[in-house]
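Final report, Chapter 2: Outcomes

The project's central promise was a pipeline that accepts a single protein chain and returns its three-dimensional structure in a standardized token representation, suitable for archiving and comparison. That pipeline is now operational. To close this chapter, we reproduce one record exactly as it appears in the project archive, with the input sequence first and the structure output second.
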Amino acid sequence: MSLITVKDLTIGYDASVLVKNINFCVEEGDYLCIVGENGAGKSTLMKTLLGLIKPLSGDIIQGDGLLKNEIGYLPQQTEVQRDFPASVTEVVMSGFSGKMGFRPFYSRKDKETARKNMERMGIYNIRKRCYRELSGGQQQRVLLARALCSTSRLLLLDEPVAGLDPKVTEDMYNLIAELNKEGTAIIMISHDINAALCYAKHVLHVGNRIFYGTKEEYLKKENGFWAKGENDND
């Protein structure tokens, strides 16, 4: 059963439609890259999947026992968020907030999970440092560890390498690919189509033209259907 199935989805704000007729599904262990032009609605789609924005129409069905608080999310950072005055450990531990319910304190299991995730991301040795003092790449590793504290089943990543230098970008892509190999399903927004095609199993292109299919199917379309241009509706 699919973790998420999207049927005839229309997204936007109020009565303003950004994209319509979106259909796709994400299976256990899948790696879906969402691509498209700037302003095409990629981030709006991700926020709609998370329930932060209501769909204008259509259905988003969570299956295979997936709960809303079992979806990890790594959003694009604002300058204010980059300057957040908390320790690495505090930021990572905040990933449990959606699962705590009425518990006022983190459990021993929570702390152990956070430790393991910091070790996986290679940031355990800087766990006591202030988040705002870290480099962009280190901050992204911290946020990825935080997202993993929410779930190990499905991660939604919005431009996770934006603003990073090439070496750090490669390291981040490799980290995400390793998580996927270990069984975590990935939905990632990327402006870098070449990287998307390198790592993705499926591609969703949003904009005036909608495409969903395997990486191989997208490559076949790229030299024909897509070559006509995003604004060609023939």
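Archive annotation: The mean pLDDT is 87.
This record, like all others produced under the grant, will remain available to the consortium after the project formally closes.
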